[in-house]
Amino acid sequence: MTNGTLQTRRLGQGLEVGSIGLGCMGMNWAYGATEADKGEAIATIHQALERGVTLLDTADAYGPHTNEELVGGAIRGRREQVVLATKFGLVRGIKAIPGVSAQTVNGRPEYAKASCDGSLRRLGVDHIDLYYLHRVDPNTPIEDTVGAMKELVEAGKVRHIGLSEASPETIRRAHAVHPVTAVQSEYSLWSREPEDGVLETLRELGIGLVAYSPLGRGFLSGAIKSVDDLAPDDYRRTSPRFMGDNFQRNLELVAVVEEIARRKGVTPAQLALAWVMAQGDDIVPIPGTRRRTRLDENLGAAAVDLTPGDLEEIASVLPRAVGDRYGEIGMRELNG
pLDDT tens-digit profile of 138-170? Predict the structure, then answer.
């Protein structure tokens, strides 16, 4: 099916969305955004909806809270065009306390319900279309967390539930409590972890994959050639793959992407997104941008046809990324 200029894809439980979504995190948080960027970010959301993007992704941790407020303001009067996704469970902004990190995970049932009410208020809506557990809480049984999410569905506050960065075992346990519509995981040419059992589990259970950071946090676009290309407060400066020798070695990966893209007559970003989309029609990438020009470039990936030969070449010549995806704390929170 088509929606605007995009085909649509189906996640689990019959949830249909545009084949490319829009990650909103970096519009006013994490990537050095300023107040001056806000107008362009809102214009980008509006243009995305006009082009057939339906899935907008945010979280209460982004800001914290300010990203939901931005998205809520942008979709006012356009709610019927949007499949609105947000997340709970990552707790940001805790002051330095011995033994407590600046980022903690909370999947307790009462926290899930309170977080949902806060997100509804900030977004200015009466329901969330897709509500994710941002990270699995190792101290709360997943059955308890999903049980609370099920109650939110029954109360009409949430339409579909999802998990983020969950292990196959956790996905199965969650799905047994209430059908899971989507699992969100990082998936790109330089982050292939979902191939280690997650995708197989999702397909067995009829759950879609929402691929975040499908452009490797912008690295695979070829636009970042030096750490000096990042704003002073851009969090990627502290990301292992963007640091020191790792950065230089990962440029070799980008060079391969650029060369294949040149021969295909597309941009590196379009090649990278087309690769993710070619891994299955149950996968929806959500590249993030706050610029309309980048949005148009990204949406152009939907028209890129990668042949079996292209996919085989990419698999055979692409170097593996060097460095962890996150720092020590972030890595501990994955595959919960």
Answer: 999 999 999 999 999 999 999 999 999 999 999
| H or E stretch covering 158 | strand 158-164
Written as six digits, the tokens of 53 are 């993007």
Three-state DSSP state, 103? strand
For the question of residue 235 being annotated catalytic, the response is no
Q: What is the CATH number of the domain that holds 283?
A: 3.20.20.100
Phi, psi of 208, rounded to the nearest 5 degrees: -85, 160
**Whole-number Å distance between alpha carbons of 38 and 23:** 15
pTM higher than 0.70, yes or no? yes
Identified catalytic residue from 62, 187, 212, 326: 62
Exposed/middle/buried for 332, CB within 10 Å: 0-12, 13-18, 19+?
middle
Q: How do residues 188-239 score in pLDDT, each as one tens digit?
A: 999 999 999 999 999 999 999 999 999 999 889 988 888 888 888 877 888 8
Alpha carbons within 13 angstroms on the beta-carbon side of residue 193 total 21
- Beta strand segments in 257-315, E: 283-285
Give the C-alpha separation, 315 to 256, whole Å: 11
Q: Which domain holds residue 287?
A: 2-217+279-305
Domains of the chain: total: 1
